[in-house]
Design a protein that fits this description.
CATH superfamily of the largest domain: Nucleoside Triphosphate Pyrophosphohydrolase
Strand content: 35-45%
Structural class: mainly beta
Distance between the termini: 45 Å
Oligomer: single chain
Number of strands: 10
Radius of gyration: 19 Å
Number of helices: 2
C-alpha cells in the first residue's frame, strides 16, 4: 500500500491487520483508511459493424488499444463521464445509450476498479488530436488490433467480438 496520512488528524498511518486484511490506521486517533475501487466509464461506439478504438501514446498502457473511457470525476455520473471522456479523447459528440456491461479489473497500475461501458451513437464532431492518443480508428471484429489494454477494456472488446455479426 502507498503511504497515507490520516484524513482526521494528519498523522502518518501505520499498517495493521484488521479483520483479516492489511489496513492502514492512525495510531493517534484510530481512523482507518479503507481503499476503494476506482470507477471508470466509457463508450462502445460502432460504425458499420466496426468498433472505435484508440491507441495510447502515454503510460500506462503505452502502445495499447482501448475504448474511449476514463475515470468518473466526483461531480459527474458514469454516463456523464462516458460522454466527457469520448469528447475529450476523440473530438466526437455522442448520445450515450444503454449499458453494455460492467467489467471489474485488478491489472491497472493505478489501482483496482470497474469499467462501466455504455453503447453510444455519434451525433457530431470530428476526430481531433489528443496528446494521449497516437492512432484512432474503427475496426471490424476480425481486425481488432493488438495489444489491447487491461483495466476492463480487453474483456469488453472480447464481449463485443463474441456478440458481433460479422
Amino acid at each position: 500500500m502507498a503511504t497515507q496520512y490520516c484524513l482526521k488528524c494528519g498523522n502518518l498511518l501505520t499498517q495493521i491487520m484488521l479483520d483479516g486484511q492489511i489496513r492502514e490506521m492512525c495510531l493517534q486517533c484510530g481512523w482507518v483508511y479503507y481503499p476503494q475501487w476506482k470507477v471508470s466509464s466509457g463508450c462502445l461506439v460502432e460504425k458499420n459493424n466496426a468498433l472505435l478504438l484508440l491507441k495510447r501514446a502515454t503510460e500506462p498502457w503505452l502502445g495499447c488499444w482501448y475504448l474511449p473511457a476514463g475515470y468518473v470525476e466526483i461531480d459527474e455520473t458514469p454516463m456523464q463521464a462516458a460522454f466527457r471522456e469520448t469528447k475529450e479523447e476523440t473530438g466526437l459528440t455522442v448520445n450515450v445509450q444503454s449499458l453494455f456491461g460492467v467489467y471489474p479489473f485488478d491489472d491497472d497500475p493505478r489501482g483496482k476498479g470497474i469499467l462501466i461501458l455504455y453503447r453510444a451513437e455519434v451525433t457530431g464532431g470530428r476526430f481531433t488530436s489528443n496528446p494521449e492518443i497516437s492512432e484512432i480508428g474503427y475496426f471490424s471484429p476480425s481486425a481488432i488490433p493488438e495489444p489491447l489494454t487491461g483495466a476492463g477494456h480487453s474483456a469488453a472488446i472480447n464481449d463485443w467480438i463474441m456478440n458481433s455479426h460479422e
